[in-house]
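Quick review question:
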């Protein structure tokens, strides 16, 4: 009897880092369900690229700001597993969906704080809780954090604080889900040149040059620097890596 194909859910998988994570996972011979917020065309293009590799892929809408929509998303996700894969379970949860804003501490509003809370911590916490019963033994949870939990970058106080909470949460996931055979790790990118946070690095040559100068390798990251590491954590070669924060930043501010 053939071994069932592994299935990964990558939130925010239509563009940027999430897209490369989804593509990198597919290159490992796994199927991918990816989520998108607003651009269905980008999401479908990513699906098409995965299908061109010979893997199955589907895109689902998910708005992490809308906390009350999580139950509906989980129901749609489970229905998709049944209809497209004839299964009630999956293997890898990559909590990547995010939002960016560079806002000095004194200018942070309660509304902005709440949006960041829902997208980067509360939403991830409870989405994971709702999906864990469907994760197969031997499955893994990969939460995406940031280098700015280790070093401070002005304007990132809200973003980095939520990611710091995620890092603590991940250790508890590993401890409490270990008896179920489920592992949990954090991948923490450094500065990466994508369209995240209004393409803050890509559209600002001075910022890109400054950040590059802080790296021993003399450059900022690219999406494929991160996606390959996330995909590795979804393989058997990474089975003994658990409860770890893996910073993928080129050694910035070391």
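Suggested answer, residue by residue:
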């Amino acid at each position: 009897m053939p071994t069932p194909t592994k299935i990964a859910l990558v939130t925010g998988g239509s563009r940027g880092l999430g897209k490369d994570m989804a593509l990198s996972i597919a290159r490992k011979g796994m199927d991918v369900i990816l989520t998108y917020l607003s651009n269905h065309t980008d999401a479908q293009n990513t699906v098409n690229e995965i299908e061109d590799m010979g893997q199955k892929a589907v895109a689902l809408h998910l708005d992490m700001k809308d906390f009350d929509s999580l139950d509906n998303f989980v129901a749609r996700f489970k229905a998709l597993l049944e209809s497209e894969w004839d299964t009630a379970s999956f293997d890898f949860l990559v909590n990547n969906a995010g939002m960016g804003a560079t806002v000095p501490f004194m200018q942070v509003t309660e509304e902005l704080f709440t949006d960041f809370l829902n997208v980067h911590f509360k939403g991830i916490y409870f989405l994971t809780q709702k999906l864990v019963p469907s994760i197969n033994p031997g499955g893994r949870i990969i939460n995406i954090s940031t280098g700015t939990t280790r070093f401070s970058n002005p304007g990132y106080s809200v973003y980095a604080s939520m990611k710091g909470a995620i890092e603590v949460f991940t250790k508890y996931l590993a401890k409490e889900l270990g008896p179920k055979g489920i592992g949990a790790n954090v991948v923490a990118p450094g500065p990466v040149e994508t369209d995240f946070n209004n393409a803050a690095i890509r559209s600002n040559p001075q910022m890109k040059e400054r950040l590059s100068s802080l790296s021993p390798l003399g450059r900022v990251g690219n999406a494929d620097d991160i996606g390959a590491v996330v995909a590795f954590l979804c393989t058997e070669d990474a089975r003994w890596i658990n409860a770890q924060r893996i910073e993928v930043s080129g050694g910035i501010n070391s």
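Why it works: The chain has one domain: 7-247. The helical segments are 16-27, 40-52, 70-85, 110-131, 157-177, 196-199, 205-213, 223-233.
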